[in-house]
Amino acid sequence: KNKMGKHTITEKKAKATCVDMKGHLMGRICGIVAKKLQNGEKVTLVRCEETNISGTHIRNKLKMLDFLRKRTLTNPGKGPFHHRAPSAMITRVIRGMITKNERNHQKRGRAALKRLVCFEGVPKNM
């Protein structure tokens, strides 16, 4: 057993889950996926482009355009970076749902994000 702070890691095989994102609300399903990742499961998301976002199309478009306008004035090349791909957007949503201390300062949070794989469409090996 390895020791990591107050927590101990037990050697066990991680469960793998494949989730079809078609028809799911983005925030609801991402919260469930974030919890699975924190519990040590491997999660694969397919058909990320088919995910629904609640609200009207115009409202969501205005929110996205406002988000795209945010940048560093002195050197925009340093970020923040705004991904347009649906799989990258969902990865960012899930990253925000993993607790801040975990994703930034602990190996456990970084390992949780490494267990996530997102795809647009369904890959041939699925």
Short description:
The protein has five helices and five strands, in the order E-E-E-H-E-H-H-H-H-E. By secondary structure, the protein is an alpha/beta fold. Strand 1 and strand 2 form a beta hairpin.
Question: Could you name the key traits of this structure?
Answer:
126 residues; alpha/beta; 3-stranded parallel beta sheet; two-stranded antiparallel ribbon; 5 helices; 5 strands; 41% helix; 15% strand; globular
Poorly predicted runs are none
β-strand percent reads 15-25%
Rounded Rg: 17 Å
Task: Give the N-to-C terminal Cα separation.
Answer: 33 Å
Shape: globular
Describe it.
- The chain has helices at 26-38, 57-69, 86-97, 100-105, 107-114; strands at 2-4, 7-9, 16-20, 42-46, 116-118.
- By secondary structure, it is of the alpha/beta class.
- The strands form two sheets. A three-stranded parallel sheet has the order 3-4-5. The chain has a two-stranded antiparallel ribbon with strand order 1-2.
- A hairpin with a 2-residue loop joins strand 1 and strand 2 (7-9).
- It starts with a strand and ends in an 8-residue tail after the last strand.
- The model has no long low-confidence stretch (mean pLDDT 86).
What does the secondary structure layout of this molecule look like, with pairings?
Blueprint: E1 2-4, E2 7-9, E3 16-20, H1 26-38, E4 42-46, H2 57-69, H3 86-97, H4 100-105, H5 107-114, E5 116-118
Parallel strand pairs: 3-4, 4-5
Antiparallel strand pairs: 1-2
Helix pairs in contact: 1-3
